[in-house]
Amino acid sequence: MNNFKPLRNSQPLVELTELPALGMDSDTIVADFRRYFSHTLGRDKRCNSTHYPYAALALTLRDRLMERMKKTRHAYEEKDCRRAHYLSLEFLMGRALGNAMLNLGINDGTTKALFDLGIDLEEISEAEQDAGLGNGGLGRLAACFLDSCATLQLPVLGYGIRYEYGMFRQKIENGHQVEEPDHWLRDGNVWELERPEFTQRVQFGGRSELYNDADGKLRVRWIDSHDVLAIPYDLPIPGYRNGTVNTLRLWKAAATDEFDLEEFNAGSYTESVAAKNAAENITMVLYPNDASENGKTLRLRQQYFLAAASLQDVLRRWIRDHNKDFSRFADKNCFQLNDTHPTCAVAELMRQLMDEQFLNWDEAWQITSHTMAYTNHTLLPEALEKWPVRLFRQLLPRMLDIIFEINARFLAEVAQHWPGDGERQRRMSIIEEGADPQVRMAYLAIVGSYSVNGVAELHSKLLQEGLFRDFYELWPEKFNNKTNGVTQRRWMAWCNPGLRALVCDTIGERWVTDLAELRKLTDHANDDNFCDRWRQIKHANKARLAAMVEADCGVAFNTDALFDVQVKRIHEYKRQLLNILHVIHLYNRIKRGDTENWTPRCVLIGGKAAPGYAMAKQIIKLVNNVANVINNDPAIRDKLKVAFLPNYRVSAMEVICPGTDLSEQISTAGKEASGTGNMKFMMNGAVTIGTLDGANIEILEEVGHDNFFLFGLTATEVEHVRDGYDPQAIIDTDEDLRRVMHLLSQGHFNQCEPGQFTDIINSITSPHDPWLVAADFRSFVDAQRLAAEAYRDQERWTRMSILNTASSGKFSTDRTMREYNADIWGLDPIVPLSSS
Ligand code: 26Q
CA–CA separation, 503 vs 492, rounded Å? Predict the structure, then answer.
């Protein structure tokens, strides 16, 4: 049944929809807020929940966003401009309220007027659930990209999945991670606009069939499929005070009506409801693995569902505006694939163009291979996505036909380029042969794309020399680097209002849209008055962070101590383990009385482990146990405090990065593609202790050796140290490491839990430890000593802190997006029209 019949009158509803602009002054906003609170939400003076004032304010802002979102869309349509589509299985948006206020330019007058009504903005902001539709770096990067594209007024549309359950909530029980479902939509989502009129249909299963069309041409169709509906929900993405509001379109899966009917007519009511469930399962939950989990049917369904629904949506619009003439399609559209997750889009665009629009292979391939662009986010070979051919055959038979054909034509090209080199063909094939043949998604993405990029200079270089070397030799012109960034609107202007005020007082406001302006702070790094204010702001931010740690961990942090922070997903290559070995070393020094010129230190570690990643979960347990011993030892007191922060998420980082002194970026060199937390910390005046890995290298380049604590093997050295690696010999010759290992193997941190940390101990002492924890221990401890020493000289530290912020200009996603646009997308900025 279709509840969205077209109106009988097909005239555009011009007079109905042309409205005077909504007021942005605080009187109008407060009046709207009161009306929403009292009339729409029906609350009265006895309301004692933060949710309703939050919802009333959100609805007030939403009106302003919708107004601009429509204008922006109309401007894009009017200009018939080229557009980019950002396809991602993850958008880690966090909260929207503060961001909307900042970007719409809601002024302090409004905040004050609300306060006078008894509404504390900071308090009601807490009522908003994080939109946790992502795992970590890759998902948050997508969110920062959208913010910057809107600010640059680029016609970029995000396409993703509206998961019913986002990233799990993490609890810590007896030191162990416990996962709880994140039903983030339970209280409704004020920001989204459902658009059922643009529902798409996505096919699964069945088989492909050859047939002759009316002209006798041989064609293929996909039949006997089980279809699922894709319903779009639009989220507004406001640019910074520029009238542009872009769209993030998220798809929800729903069962088709026919499906119900079929089963119902067969008399099986319960089966029909169960089938409905199966369809709706597709968008039920985000996979909480930040490395690929292969072979899970539901995950592949999610990936295809996103690709198919999004491409149909784009083609629907194309046909509405250009009829069936696809000759200019590739001039007007491109698709950026956020990692291999949406790579089905390569084969799916081929399918839609051939099977639905009746283009021939060459026409369809010309379009596809000139519209797709692929971003890689990993250097770990084991994290490259592969899917069993049999799974494709069963779930997406028509996709498999097309992938085989793409591969056959591609391998012919390889054979032409390297005649007689069968080994090379085997290596480069999109299909990995073997007992259980696999589709190599990264290779499909490279073959189908006109651009392939890494996310930091080192990462892009290593892709070309290592993982994708054969492809680089074949198509060097496809490969490029786009160093990541973060948006300074959320990650400085919004989350650090103290710093925002000082920086604006000192160098004006331009840095909010031109981060390179921060360089001007360099001149003030020796101004005592400025340095004092800088220190006071950091101190206040540390107090806010300490309050959060006290509330969530029950650990008291002294704000005069060095705040040493590592927050990110828990992964062996990120080496939280190295961090905790250093903590144990400090503990041991205090116990031995080696405390001359001691720098008090508070160590904070936070992050989620994939639920099936046993070693990562053990690392969490170890951090918690070590924290317990140290925090409860009367001999340690304020010299050292350790806390594990549960449920690390976007809104927690908004409190953490402004209050951090020392940022831990300590991955094994050559393993972290870029990192983006490193940039958030730097912007907020934290100094980095880090390896030459990912974007750390570029951070060091910008800030200089004097303002960065560098340690550890380089990526090249890592590869050489591996053979003949003998961690036991290192332990035997390094007294400090020997003491640390002794405490661990004595069970000092697991007195009542024998054997708890055996796997961890074995991993450190194994000659096959890929992360080389023992190899970097000495230089890490030495660098930490230098950091502690630097911190004791508060004037010196403040200068370092200022210079870090001043040098962070490169790490704005505004810069990143300009580069994507200049080298890959080629979009013209569009200023929305003033009439609706
Ligand atoms: C794939 C298949 C099946 C299930 C899960 C996945 C999956 C999901 C998420 C694989 C990977 C991810 C996330 C990866 C990620 O966050 N990578 C990080 O991307 C950041 C942005 O470029 C970089 O800064 C980090 O270095 C990189 O680790």
Answer: 10
Choose which residue among 140, 287, 290, 486 to substitute to test ligand 1 binding: the one with the highest number of ligand atoms within 8 A of its C-beta.
Answer: 290
Residue 486 has pLDDT above 50, yes or no: yes
CA of 456 to the centre of ligand 1 (A): 14
Contact at 8 Å (CB) between 654 and 122?
no
CA dihedral sign of residues 287, 444, 465, 826: negative
The answer to whether 519 touches 806, Cβ cutoff 8 Å, is: yes
Task: Tell me the pairing of strands 640-645 and 601-606.
Answer: parallel
With CA atoms as reference, report the closest residue to 609 among 564, 557, 572, 635. 572
pLDDT digits (tens, 9 = 90+) for 510-525: 999 999 999 999 999 9
Maximum pairwise Cα distance, the chain: 91
Cα(18) to ligand 1 centroid in Å equals 43
Catalytic residue among 60, 244, 375, 676: 676
The model's pTM is 0.97
Q: Answer whether residue 259 shows pLDDT above 90.
A: no
Start-to-end C-alpha separation, the chain: 33
pLDDT digits (tens, 9 = 90+) for 223-254: 999 999 999 999 999 999 999 999 999 999 99
Cα–Cα dist 409/373, whole Å? 20
CA 87-441-349 angle, 5° bins? 50
For ligand 1, say whether the CB of 293 is within 6 Å of any of its atoms: yes
* Residues ≥6 apart with Cβ < 8 Å to 711: 666, 689, 690, 691, 776, 779, 780, 782, 783
Of the pLDDT bands very low, low, confident and very high (cuts 50, 70, 90), residue 728 is very high
Task: Give the span between the Cα atoms of 159 and 249, in whole angstroms.
Answer: 5
- For residue range 505-559, what is the model confidence (pLDDT) as tens digits? 999 999 999 999 999 999 999 999 999 999 999 999 999 999 999 999 999 999 9
Q: Which of 569, 608, 671, 799 is catalytic?
A: 569
pLDDT of residue 836: 39
Q: Does residue 459 have its Cβ closer than 6 Å to ligand 1?
A: no
Give residue 285's identity as a one-letter amino acid code: V
Gap from CA of 508 to ligand 1 centroid (Å): 37
492: closest CA among 517, 526, 529?
517
